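Anyone opening a protein record will find just a pair of labelled lines. With that in mind, the following record should read easily:
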Amino acid sequence: MKSLLSPQPSLPTHITEPRINLSRSKVTSSLRFDRDRWIGRKKCGLTLNAVLDPATIDQFGISESELVNPAVSTSYRSSKLPKPNQTVLDAQARVCTGPTQTKPLSEDQAFKVFDTILRSARGELKDEEQVSKAQLGAFFAAMTIRANAFPEATQWSEGEKHAVSNFWPHLVRALPSDVIFIADPEGSIMGVGSSIGPQYVGNGTSDMRLVGALREVLAGGHLGYEEVQGVLRDVLPFKFEDNKCSSGVSETLLSAFLIGQRMNRETDRELKAYCLAFDDQLGSWALGLAPVADVRSLTHYGEPYDGNTRFFRSTLFVAAVRSCYGESSLLHGVEWMPPKGGITEEQMLKFMGANTRLTPLQAKELLEDEELGFAYVSQREACPSLYSLIGLREHIKKRPPLATTEKVQQFVKARGREAIVTGFYHEGYEEPLLMLMKRRGVHSGLVVKGEEGALSMTTKFRSVNASKGLPVNYCSGFRSLSMDSAFELDGVSRQNFKTEVNAKDFGFEPTDTPRTDRSVSKNIELGLGALHGQKGPAYDRIVLNAGMVDHLLGCDGAEDVSTALDRAREAIDSGKALKKLLNYIRVSQKMR
């Protein structure tokens, strides 16, 4: 199969783990690289050494307790974020999810959770043992939605009912009114009559619209586009300081709203409203003033922001490959994001010494640089108020609607063709993602069910015992048939497609995906080894994802799959892709 769309028509690179040298004085880690060995001039491999420099540490006044190992993804979590109560968080993992995925608590689990909440409300728990406002909002919203709208199998278990009957008479006297409202908005769920829920309107004007919207959400209902937009306008900008939202909205109510919308499975109109939240935060987008790069083609890569915890993450290295033949890529994300807290592009770039604090305008300059051709923008720089939600997102445990819409962004635009590529895991989100891409007005869009819900396709053979539903390597998308047709609304000019990519059909030997298990340095080792020409599973995945994305998006010169794959291999084997990545690190460092 030469085309999935057209009906007819050197030396291995070795990377050592960071060497950490502790001293009695205050210390921090700073990465030092031997650039000549990086480029391979001495042909002796690449070594990454994390050297602790006491003088640098003293300069910044960082304590030993803040010392982290930059080779592990979990170390990138900010120590300034308050940790959630683990007992309640574990319960949230079971109940703050969809109507078929929810796992009701056993009686022992439920008693333990409600006892923890009661003791926290009475002030008997301190510091990290306390149950946060966000946790209370998310947990009780989940309990209410399950009681009101979920199928019988995922409604309250007998053990949960028993726990509620035992603890609620005490909780109703200890919990604040906004939590009581969320737990029993109509005064009919908990078995102990209370007028607080039915009469609750919030503690100020900023709460009023949110409370009204929550009544619908907690009943399992959906909101109109304007309703969601109104709520988001009231609470924007999202900025939390000292555990308080600067807009004055209740953190408890906001958490309940975000997790409730996700549990009810957002409609297209609700997702559109969340997507616009990014535009509103950037301000100038509404006037069409986003930076515009003078490039003929730009692909926006929307990897899940919470990273990979198990398997090799290839997109950074794919971007370096595609830049070698004029296919520019803009990556975006964060350094660390719950719930997974896995390996991200920002962690890898930071570990290798690149500047990860570029503005969209600076990213535009890098995209236009022929020696580079790709760039990375952090949500921290592009949407700081939405970035400030990371702490709250950790405490609600499950992904909010923003986790879907943040993947479909254009922090920089292009004069030429534009495309968006993103990944998904749960079946049913592929069409909403494509809808959002079309709304962005891009020429082509692609969603991939990659491993871990990321966008990377695998060469792994699919077992007959694989999980039900859409298989890994399932792809769905669209592409425009002309440069000027991306903005047509009737859909006639777009070619839609769905396919399952079988790597074996294109000459790849089936191999298991390399494990990284949260090791940033291992992921870098695999990627740089591949760019240095080391053949193997990582090399194959980079080639597959570069060539197949080029083909599916309808990129120039990629009409034939085999030709597209050969072009990607040549970019690696010639050393051009490695040079592009090294140039990016060097040039980005100079931008301040």
The mean pLDDT is 85. The chain has 24 helices and 13 strands. The longest helix spans residues 133-149. The longest strand covers residues 417-423.
